[in-house]
Design a protein that fits this description.
342 residues, 16 helices, 63% helix
Length: 342
């Protein structure tokens, strides 16, 4: 009986730790953020509004403390956040027409050919890279993507936003507040119909299906490497040389071989969808993937970083059943051998 009491205490302490202490510690180290949102206009408006509300709270707190320097800093932050909320709201409002219009594929082909193929390749349509990746990265900071799959892996609203204003569309305008400019020029001088035409063309040439690795390659490999991809064709080096992408991003983008283990599904989904939620001020842009494409990227990272997951999960229930059976036999053996002692 004493052993059962000890077991009950151990189980109780384990459950308290697992369902009480650990979740609380996790919430303190990793504050909750809003869930993944693929409607980028809504996501940007909501996040800008939240930043304004937080800035107001900081200002109120500073006023209560009565520290003049802190109050002025909080007022400046609030002014900045309110200005950005106005900017991003107007930006997405200006995109609505192009998003809702039906594009003309033929005219889109003319526009994309004239405006994009000097920097971007479209291998599937006979437009090879004008320069090699190293030269492109030296000129622009990062190798430019092939546009053949853009209409498949990126949403229409993201393509419209990015073509019109890359810095706001990719949510990295904070990088250029000192007067710098995004390496891709904005095409906000185009009409809504012309932008819709370009997107329609990109969607028309996109492949119907892509493997998980192909989506990862087109969406992530310009900046990120995977050193441990031997099972899937050897090491995958980033297309952009380390020195160039480090200068462009501020630090070398990490190798993603083990990120599925070190960060987990939830973190990666939120970070790819909107890096600013989890790491405010980061130079990593919003990737702009559709839900399907983002799932494929995360799945590929799991295939590379945790290939034994399915086997491990399959073995788990069997091992627990074994422990239960073993515990029953152990208890019965103990009862038969030690009954007289107790």
């Amino acid at each position: 009986m004493r052993e059962l009491k000890i077991l009950a205490v151990v189980v109780a302490l384990t459950l308290i730790t697992y369902w009480g202490v650990e979740p609380f510690a996790h919430s303190q180290m990793n504050p909750a953020v809003s869930p993944v949102e693929y409607k980028f206009d809504k996501a940007d408006k909501d996040s800008a509004k939240l930043e304004v509300e937080n800035a107001k709270k900081e200002l109120e707190s500073a006023k209560k403390d009565g520290i003049e320097k802190a109050v002025k800093a909080a007022e400046a932050t609030l002014t900045e956040k309110e200005a950005f909320e106005k900017t991003i709201t107007e930006f997405w409002a200006s995109n609505e027409e192009a998003i809702n219009l039906k594009g003309d594929v033929a005219n889109g082909e003319v526009l994309v050919t004239a405006n994009c193929t000097a920097c971007h390749s479209i291998e599937s349509k006979g437009f090879p890279q004008a320069m090699d990746n190293a030269t492109l990265a030296s000129a622009y900071g990062v190798a430019t993507p092939d546009l053949g799959s853009a209409g498949k892996i990126y949403s229409k609203e993201y393509l419209v936003a990015f073509i019109k204003n890359p810095a706001l569309g990719a949510k990295v305008s904070h990088k250029y507040e000192d007067g710098g400019a995004h390496p891709m020029p904005g095409y906000d001088w185009m009409s809504a119909q012309e932008i819709a035409d370009m997107v329609a063309y990109l969607q028309s040439i996109a492949p119907e299906k892509m493997t998980n690795k192909e989506v990862f390659t087109d969406a992530c490999q310009r900046c990120h490497a995977i050193k441990y991809a031997d099972k899937f064709g050897g090491t995958m080096a980033a297309f952009s040389p380390a020195d160039d992408v480090t200068k462009y991003m501020g630090k070398l983008p990490p190798d993603l071989s083990q990120f599925i283990i070190s960060r987990g599904h939830d973190y990666l989904h939120k970070f790819v969808n909107d890096p600013q939620k989890l790491l405010e001020g980061t130079a990593m842009p919003r990737v702009g993937l559709t839900e399907e494409a983002q799932n494929q990227v995360i799945t590929y990272l799991e295939e590379v970083g945790d290939p034994k997951k399915s086997e491990r999960e399959e073995l788990g229930p069997k091992f627990l059943i074994y422990l239960v059976i073993f515990a029953i036999f152990a208890f019965l053996w103990k009862a038969s051998r030690w009954r007289d002692v107790h």
